[in-house]
Amino acid sequence: MGKEMQESNLFKPITIGEVTLSHRVVHAPTSRSRSTGDGSHIPTDLMLQYYDSRSKHAGTLIIFESCLVSPDGGLVPYKSGVWNQEQCRALKVITDQIHANGSFVSCQIFAPGRVANIKEMKEKGLLYSAPSVIFHAQSHKVESEKLQYPLCELSIDQIARIEDDFVQAAANCLDLAGFDFIELHGSSGFLIEQFLSPISNTRNDQYGGSLENRCRFLFEIIDKLIRKLGSLSKVGIRLSAWSEHFGMIYPKGVYDVHPPLLFCQYVLDHLEKLKRQGYEIGYVSLTEPRVSGNNDQDPKDNSNQSLVDRWSGKLIRAGGYASNYKSNTATATANANTCLQQDVNADDRTLIAFSRPFTSNPDLITRLKNDLKLDNYQREFFYSHSLQGYLTFGDYVDDTEGSNSLPYSEDELQREGTPLV
C-alpha cells in the first residue's frame, strides 16, 4: 500500500458531530455472540478485552455490535441488551475503557422482529411479531409450528411502543452506558428493514403499501429521537441496498427497480431534507454491494453511487475493502487497494469501515498504515461463544505463520465470558 495510502484521506482527521477522530478507519459493527447466554443479555469480560484491544489506536471510532432495544422487539441469545440498568452498567465498563484509550464508540441498536429466537420468546411469554406474518425462512416457520408459537402482525399500538423502545434504548446508550453515538440498524433483514421492504411488509394500513408508508416506522423513530435528544448529531444509521441477509432476496423479473435501492434512496432524501432543516444526522453507514451479511458476493453492476450522491453529510462506507488481503502477503490486490483509495479520497467526508479484518487484526490501523500482513479471520468462530477465535489474535510481530497468535491453554480457549456486573 505504501506511501500513497499513508498520504490519503484515510489517515487524516475528521469530525463527526462533536467528536474529532484522528483517522478514518472505522471498526464496523461486528456481532460475535459473546454476551451472556442465560437470558440476561449482559456483555462479558471477553467483550471488554476485545474492544479494549481494538481501540488502542487513539482517535478511532468503534461501532459496537448490535444491541437489542427491548424484549418486545425480539430477543436473540448471546446478544447484549440496552433496556435495563444492569446491562447499561456493564456496557459502561466497555465504553469507559474505549474512552481511556482515547477512542470513541457508537452503539448499533436493533430489534430482530421476525428473526427473533422463537424459543426464547415463548419461554418469556413475549409476542413473536413482525410487520406482516411472513417468515424469513422455512426453518423458522417449521419451528414456530413445532413450538405452537405463531408469528403475529404488529398492531398500531405495538408499533408505537417499539418505536418508543428504540428511543429509550438510544437515551440509555448515551446517558447510562456512555456511548458517544447510537446507530439505527436499518439493514440485515431486521425489524426496520422488515418495514422498509415490500417482501416482508404487505400491510394495508399507514405502515404498508406505498414507499412512503413503509418508511413511516423509521421516520417516526427519527422524529421521536429529535424530540428526545434535541438533535440528530449523536445518531447514525446503517443502510444496505444489496444485502440478502435473513431472507431479503428479491425474485428476478418482478421489480423494475431493485426495491432496497429505492427505499434507501427515499430514506437518504428524507435525511438530506432534515439536514437542510437543521437536523443533520451524525453519519450514514452504507454497506457496499461486495458483501451480504458476513459473506462476500459478486457486486455485478450494482453500485452505491446513487446513494452517495443523495447524502451530503458524513458517510461511512463498509464492505470488502480488505477482503483481498491474503495471509503472508504484505499488500492488497490492485482491485481492493484501488477501491479503498478511490472511495476515501473521493471527498472530505468519507470514512471506511472494516469488519472481518478487525476480528483477526486488533492493530488493523497500524497494519494498514505500515503496509503489514493481515492475518486471516476464522469464520468458524464468528458466532461461537468462547474465547477461541475471538481473543486469540495478537498485534503484529512478523509474517511467520502463527507468529501473531496469542497462547492460551485448551481450558482457556473453551471459556465463555462472565458478565461485567
Automatic annotation (TrEMBL):
Gene3D superfamilies: Aldolase class I. Keywords: Flavoprotein, FMN. Residues 9-374 form the NADH:flavin oxidoreductase/NADH oxidase N-terminal domain. InterPro entries: Aldolase_TIM (IPR013785), OxRdtase_FMN_N (IPR001155), Oye-like (IPR045247). The keyword Flavoprotein applies. Its cofactor is FMN. It comes from the Eukaryota. Pfam families: Oxidored_FMN. The keyword Transmembrane helix does not apply. PANTHER family: NADH OXIDOREDUCTASE-RELATED, NADPH DEHYDROGENASE 2-RELATED. Belongs to the NADH:flavin oxidoreductase/NADH oxidase family. This is NADH:flavin oxidoreductase/NADH oxidase N-terminal domain-containing protein.
